[in-house]
Amino acid sequence: MNREFLHKITLLGCLFLLITSSSGTDNGFQTPEQYAQIVQEHFANEEWEAGKELLEEGLQKYPNVSDLEWLMGKYWFHEKNYDQSRYHLVKAIDDNYNNVNAKHLLVDVEDITENYSSAICYVNELLEVNPYWRGLWRRKIELYRKQNNDVEADRLLKRINQIYPNDTILRKDYIYSMEVGYQQMKKGGNRKEAIERLTELIKVSPQNEEYYLDIINLHLQEGNREAALGWSSNGLAAIPGSGALIVKRASILSELARYPEALAFIREQMKRNNSPAIRRMYNDLLMEAARAEKQRDPYVLYGMAYEGGNKNKEALDYLLNTSVTRGYTDDALFYIREAKKQYGNNDKGILYKEYMLYRQMNEDDLAYSTLKKMYEMYPDDYDITLAMSAQHMKKAEKLMELGLYAEALPHVLFVSQKHIDNDVNGAAWEKALSCYINMKRYNEALATLDTITLHFPDYENGTLKRAFILDKMDKTEEALQLYLSAIEQSDEDMRIFYVIGYEELAVPYIKKCMEAGATKKAYEEAIKLVSLNPSSDLGLRYAINSSGLLGKYDEFEKYTAQGINYYPEEPFYQAKRATVLERDKRYEASLEFLKPILNKYPSNKEIIGAFSQSSEYRALQLTKAKEPEKALAVLDTALLYDSQNKSLKYTKGVVYEANRQADSAYYYQKYYEPSIMEYRSFQRHLSGLRSMMLKNEIALTYLRARYGEEDIITSVATAEYTRKGQKNSYTGRLNYAGRSGSASDSMEAEEQTPGGVGIQVQGEWTHHFSPKWSTTVNAAFATKYFPDITADVAVRHYLKNDWEIGAHVGYRRVAAYTKRYEWNDEFFAGGTGDNGYLFTGWNESKTNLLTVGGELAKTIEVVRLNTKIDMHFFNSNFYYNAQIGAKYFPVNDGKTNINAMASIGSAPETAVLDYALPGSFSHTNTMVGLGGQYMVSPNITIGLMGTWNTYYNQTNTVRGSSPLNPIESISTRYKNLYNIYAQVYISF
């Protein structure tokens, strides 16, 4: 027995420990996303062990969830345990192939562990998602280099540099790659290839002094000193005054024993750079020249002979050629003049030497003038035509740099028509194409492009150029179709180029369509762009906006989700996600979604705008649900971020109005800026609010009733005063009724009540417990005609979406009158009369009337519908009355309305009893009515109402010729009663 009891106690203890331990470790997280968020916060705060502990708990609950596996991989990466990191990151990708974070980290793991091929594979997978991420391309190039695959790295770098020619980082990488390449070639002894690579480098970076020095040295190593001198001249032209290049050229000239040329050169350069090193070199050269002068220079000897009068052809030719070659410009000009005297001014050889001399002197105008003269004289000479073409190209380039395309065009057309050299000809046609495009002569541009593609089938930019021209001709659709055809026929490498080109044309075209109102066309083009480049930011934005305008909400949601997938941190897509939630009327979910984003981007206009809009919708939703306090809290939160938003302020005024806080409602609603069409209605609404702000109201009512078949007038006058507050309203009311009629025997048989005056005093209290509940209590006492005692209690409940239900109970002490007849003793048989009974007064009886009823109402825009049923208990019998009504508010002031009503029942409506009007029980009573109210000003409102009652009426009489045999009779019939209510309300 004890052992069994101990066994049970042990089991209970273990169960308790299990429960407490599980509850102790449960952090309250319900989803993997919650675990991931908290773990990332731990990692961000360098709390790695705490994050790992929580992460292990999450993975135990949710094994193989991609984001949790990625975070575990991130932890092991931080701990430099790359095998464990790789294990978890691969599991993350197995669960979600598109986990970009995991793939990025895997690239780092494989890079560190030198598994470069795997790293490149992961980079390729990331490029499939976003093929235009420049950082990934650079990473791929870096991995190829680590893999010692420089060929592929250089090819990829050159290609990506062509895609993004304005990217300075890529440009630096490209230059560095070529520089490394030529250094390797130089070390490997491949001087010719190194020279070619350096030539390309100088084109890209013409201001780099080191490149000129290297290429000069390489040419010297090749034994090509003239080429080395040429590059020294090019370098000094690009970098005037470069000390290193001055020294280098002078050294080469010195090695060639061309001392006079070297000395003349240094003297010229010392005008720009008179550094000590150059002065020392000049002095050294002077010494060397002096020593060399000891050896007889043929140039000097020929010069002396020529000056001595031996001006034969041999001496002149030698002196002219040598002076031109050595750069003795003054001597060369002299000998050219001498040659022209001997051979004439039109000698081709002399003119050509003169042209070359002017080029050396950088006298471009003189060189061109000489060349032009030669071309006119020898148009079929290949060398002259080639030189002429080069001059035209040079002039064209300068004019195009200045934007003078019309002036540049004749120069490039000259070259293109000569067919001298394919490269030169191709360059000329391409410049002609550029001129036509910039001059907006697009038809000529297309014709030129056709010529280029005909003569140069391998021309790679044909599609790009043609599409560009078509776009400029407002034939963008044709241009886009051209790209689509090219994309379908291209390989993967070229596809990137064409997709980029397609996007560059499509985005402005879509924008143009949107601005022109062609939303459907914009949508069609946007989805084409997104299908080609799913990560196109602008394409996704236009697809989302256009689908929203067209009401394609499924597409709107689809592209919003796609945008968030590619750009999870981009506020635009977060805002559109909120719009999706709003469309489903999930305003609270939208706000919860936006709050953390708003905390992250507190100044972002898109997020603030989305948060404000959701807040506005949510506040109106709460207002309809009769929760104004919550609605105001939502709006106040939104105004913290968007304090100048007039729409939020206006909505806050609407909420205050629904909560009967007219002063606050007026204050906030006045911020609204109505259109011209809305202005009068809005001002009317503000007038209504000003009227609601007034706490005191006097109401004067006059009721005039007339029977349809008799000229009998019945009236009731009412005066009341109401003090209004937000939660309590108090009303004092005085009713006055006067009745025509006699209290003597002259009373007509049709009269059912005696004549006289009746007064009723009534008090009423209305209290709002909350926005959803209110009650009204009133009590009244009267002298005559009105119920002696009146007491009512009503309760009203305000439901969502402008529904209302109500219940009421009432008590009335009502009076009933019957005629009293007595025998006339003076009546004698045989007289002329046949009635011996006289009317001597009224018999009054008091009866209790208990009323119980209910009401249902619904407001739809500007119409309020209501139905009401009353059940009366009177003289131990049950009676009813059912009523329906409708109010139409034609203007937006809250008071002006048109009112229609109708009722039917075995009892009259309660108002008949309250206003001391005739009615009957147990027979059908009907009523129809029509009227309305009009707010004249915030202080005055007037009203007029007409009703038509049909009720059952009976009259009792007593006749007879003998006191022993009275004959009682009751006459019955239905009567019509027409009522007019006139009302004046004065607020102050």
Features:
disordered N terminus, about 55% helix, 14-stranded antiparallel barrel, alpha+beta
Structural summary, described in words:
The protein is built from 39 helices and 14 strands. A 14-stranded antiparallel beta barrel has the order 1-2-3-4-5-6-7-8-9-10-11-12-13-14. Strand 13 (940-959) and strand 14 form a beta hairpin. The longest helix is centred in the middle third of the chain and has 25 residues, at 492-516. The chain is elongated.
What's the N-to-C terminus distance? 88 Å
- Alpha carbon gyration radius: 53 Å
User: Counting H and I runs of at least 4 residues, what is the number of helices?
Assistant: 39
Q: In percent, how much strand structure appears in the residues?
A: 15-25%
Low-confidence region ranges: 1-26, 743-750
Largest sheet entry = 14 strands, antiparallel, barrel
Helix content: 55-70%
Structural class by sheet pairing and helices: alpha+beta
Tally of strands = 14
Strand order of the largest sheet: 1-2-3-4-5-6-7-8-9-10-11-12-13-14
**Mean pLDDT score, rounded?**
83
Shape by Cα distribution: elongated
